Amino acid sequence: MRTFHIVRPDESIRADILQKIDNLNKPKGSLGRLETLAEQICLIQQTLSPTLEHPCHLLFGGDHGIEREHVSVSPRDVTWQQMKNFTRGGGGVNMFCRQHGFKLRIVDVGVDYDLSDTPGIIDRKIARGTRNFLHEAAMSEEEFDRSIQIGSDLVDDCHKEGCNIICMGEMGIANTSPSSIWMHLFGNIPLDECIGVGAGLNNPGLQHKREVLHEAVDHFRALNSHPSTLEIIRYFGGFEMTAAIGAMLRAAEEGMIVLVDGFIMTACALAATRLYPEALPYMVFGHCGDESGHQRMLALMDAQPLLRLGLRLGEGTGALCAFPIVQSAVNMVNEMNNFQNANITKYF
Q1: Percent of the chain whose predicted confidence (pLDDT) is above 70
Q2: Positions marked catalytic
């Protein structure tokens, strides 16, 4: 895996940031989460006058070998069908990207279908899906390295266009399964408490999913008594997930705001910060959804999501919905007057 040189934001500017926010013409702390969000963004950008430039959204698609074990209510064909739908502008991700002015890049890193001639899809296919982690590692070391590099390179493309805020989404049937296992292994949380219904499993389906994932984890532990973070990520992850990790780490390395989506992307953020804890200050968590354990996974990173809308669509839609709140925080610190200029006596 390539090395990232991520540096935590310089804290020396924090006192000046807080002084500016506290002297805006409002009671101290009265804008709540907007104030702490503005503080974080100012720290990331190392300025008292932050901006949001050329926002981009990377949507990675990939299939999973574990889908063959019927752990999802949807078949893998849905992955490529939705990828094509995205190119026609018909997905939820398309709607929110249009609404909030995000440039959307749709990337095939591992869909089990030939999308190479589909206009609007960036072809970075590593393989037609990962292997079945019930029996073996989902990807090889070389495939893992390639996926990390693909995510990193796509962030470079966005950054060259002037982008300083980016989010990632995914399309990959069965990807709640590796996400649940990452949460279990990285957070030391009982596996059953990490497994949810995904796209809509019924109770017998959920029980089957639990049995399959328990067997997979037991098999992995028998092979790896003291696995490294990299081994855990590679053994269970999907190509779309590891590409997102590469994108998150590169964006943090470039000092960009990383707007994190729901359960799957939170699992990717958890994995990324287990590799590089320095990346966490660059992450803004957009949404906490209904998938079992999502709040607990956020708590592992002491993350406070901006929204709780009950979304479980994926695609990055929760992050995109949170963008106006990020914009409001930036507008607050840039456009509100202060007590001195407004000739208002401080009333706190």
Answers
A1: 99
A2: 315
